[in-house]
Known about the structure:
Layout: H1 2-18, H2 25-28, E1 43-50, E2 60-64, E3 69-73, H3 75-78, E4 86-96, E5 99-112, E6 120-121, H4 124-130, E7 138-148, E8 164-171, E9 174-181, E10 196-204, E11 215-218, E12 225-227, E13 231-235, E14 243-244, E15 255-262, E16 271-279, E17 284-293, E18 296-303, E19 310-318, E20 321-329
Parallel strand pairs: 3-5, 6-7, 9-11
Antiparallel strand pairs: 1-2, 1-4, 2-3, 4-5, 7-8, 7-10, 8-9, 10-11, 10-12, 13-18, 14-15, 15-18, 16-17, 16-19, 19-20
Amino acid sequence: MKNLLQLFTYLIILTSTAFSQWIPVDSIRVQDTSGVPLLLNQSITTRGVVTTFREFGGVLVYFQSRTAGLVGYDTAICNRVKRGDSIEVTGVVTQYSGLTELTPVTSVTILDTGKIVTPVIATTTQIKNNGEVYEGMLVKIVNVTAVHNFSGADVITWSVSGSGTNYRLIAGNDSCDIRIYATTNIANQPIHAFPFNLTAECSQFKFSAPFFGGYQLLPRSLDDFTGVTGVINVSNAVPDVYSLHQNYPNPFNPVTKIKFEILSNISGQTSDVKLIVFDALGKEVKTLVNEKLSAGSYEAEFNGSRLSSGVYFYRLEAGNFVETKKMILLQ
């Protein structure tokens, strides 16, 4: 029965491919009971937004839709794209140690630029036990409290040898694997002060079938590590309206604070809140807040020490409320 269901699914996907110019990433990720893509060795065309820029060497490119991710493994794509590019890509579906890839890549078209991908919030348990759901996608782990080597000892530096080194990331009552690539600026640098939040690509490395397990997080740069105290609850008093204040000081060098007020959602519960900083070209520079917040007043800190002087914008999204303000960095 399972084999018949897989065959039926495969035929549906092939039919969709035949009658459309491109198919969703989700369809490419459909697998059999051994974790092998049903479209293995098929040439397909799909679309997504790029979330890497040569951080893992000159071949790997991670890109994703809102609900699924994929990897392009070819200089033909790596040399063409950068973070935030919306692309249409054609390539052959392959699998390397469980990781679903397109290689070779035969065509890449950039449809748009400056697109924003918000990482999916996940737990270490979800990554370890159900990482297939997140493979190829940008995820966020909150409140990391320790990093261990595989002997269980605490580490304070991302010591890297060879092409990269794996560690255990501790958050809550569980852990998952994290790999630091030698090609990133994270290699051999001190680990961020605990606790911290981490944004990273969800990848996989498992030698043999069934290809479920071996999931690991791949941070792209030091900017993917942020302090948990980036947003402070100033007051729990429920405000009358949503509001976003002008940053202070402004101009600033290099640190400034941004205050905002949040209301409860329709059901009186927490609201999904995003506070994002953009450069003058509209490209995302930093996500300061991406979490559920209760009604109240908050203050977030933005550090522009790694940025050039100039005009930047910050945007608050909470429920149906969206507001943007301008600020100036003077180094």
